[in-house]
Write a structure and sequence with these properties.
Layout: H1 17-23, E1 27-29, H2 33-41, E2 46-48, H3 53-65, E3 68-70, H4 76-87, H5 91-102, H6 108-126, H7 131-137, H8 148-154
Parallel strand pairs: 1-2, 2-3
Helix pairs in contact: 1-2
């Protein structure tokens, strides 16, 4: 709680990120793709504090868009400086809003469905099993009835 203020809050539970993004001026994130995309789709800039290489790649992409900055998480002066820079400039918000307008038709649920469909298509080409077997693997693990042959294919 000592890190909180009247304008910064830490949550002990997962947030409704869409609602949080809608109500914030900017977000401080770790460079994860999902959270970053959600905030940018809300038209809000992002200060990224990446801890891993793939997070750094996302953070660098946000910086290239002009919709955020990257700070070194272990350097408080870097974080404070980048945060102050972002709060003092409307350019980051403008870039984030342009991103949101450009991808306004993006629907994460539809995208997940399309990705699942493509994975099923690839799997059926690699593992020639019937559609009934594929449907069975969509079931939760406790409801599946694997045969020994199927177990070999998916093991």
């Amino acid at each position: 709680r000592k890190l909180e203020s009247t304008t910064a809050h830490l949550s002990p539970r997962p947030l409704d990120l869409r609602a949080a993004a809608a109500g914030c001026d900017l977000a401080v994130l770790g460079g994860g793709h999902g959270a970053t995309a959600e905030v940018l789709l809300a038209g809000k800039p992002v200060l990224e504090l990446p801890a891993a290489r793939e997070q750094r790649m996302v953070a660098d992409a946000v910086a290239r868009l002009g919709a955020g900055e990257v700070a070194l998480p272990k350097r408080g002066d870097d974080v404070r400086g980048k945060l102050a820079l972002m709060l003092a400039s409307d350019g980051y918000r403008g870039a984030a809003e342009r991103f949101a307008r450009r991808y306004s038709a993006f629907d994460p649920r539809r995208q997940r469905g399309a990705m699942l469909e493509r994975c099923e298509q690839i799997a059926s080409e690699v593992f020639p099993i019937g559609s009934a077997q594929i449907e069975q693997f969509k079931q939760p693990p406790h409801r599946r009835r694997e045969t020994k042959e199927e177990h070999k294919i998916f093991a």
